[in-house]
From TrEMBL:
Keywords: Lyase. Its EC number is 4.2.1.17. Pfam families: ECH_1 (PF00378). It comes from the Bacteria. It comes from Sphaerisporangium rubeum. This is Enoyl-CoA hydratase. It is an enzyme of class 4 (lyase). One of its GO terms (molecular function) is enoyl-CoA hydratase activity. Belongs to the enoyl-CoA hydratase/isomerase family. One of its GO terms (biological process) is fatty acid beta-oxidation.
Amino acid sequence: MSSTDAVLLEEPAPGVRLITLNRPQVRNAMTAEVTAAWTAAIAQVAEDDGVRVLVVTGAGSSFCSGADLSWLDQGASQETTPDRMRERMLPFYRSWLSPRDLPFPVIAAINGPAVGAGLCAALACDLRYAATSARFSAPFIYLGTHGGMAATWLLQESVGVPRARELLYTGREVLPEEALAWGLITGVADDVLDHSLKIASQIATAAPIATRLTKAGLEQSAHGLAASLQWEALAQPVTLATSDVHEGIQAKRERRPPIFTGN
């Protein structure tokens, strides 16, 4: 797989891609360089028909320390008026939240602190596994800024309104054990990347059409029971018309692992 220096893109297993944020010296902050490399890597993965699962992690001891706001140090200028900053922030948000739009599952292997926008990037992933050294916080208001990257929505989705309020109002650090109890993460592992890649390899063996439609269905379910039923009444017949469903049934009868082709 191709890579840049700021973000690495690899193929560690069949159907699995791994993106590593590779600026440990700045705790993988979302600098302009890293953001551009991330955007390019996501675009490459999205166009790759062989991808069934994506894993995202950070190099070094941090997952992601959040947005790089050093560009504000230049002081007031035409580039730091609210309208100009909005034009700058929306593409930034959309790029880092793009795992929500990918048609296949995305796993965050959170190897260390995930702070502010870095936490939001993890929350944009479908599954989140954390190392014991991971830490989670949303200290936006203690930096003098409102939360960004859909923090107010993503936190409510993952941990509910009362806990989202606490995290945003106190900015406090949450350790993996508490994060797991809250539902902020899916699991904890000593070697979080190895664990995440094993889960990714397992998911990569599932029927790809059914997996992709399941991800879309989970998004539809946010609109309520009626929307979910309407979606499933379409999506399940689509999968029942594939050759993969016959392979799945036959493999179960023969007590062997199925070999799905995505047809």
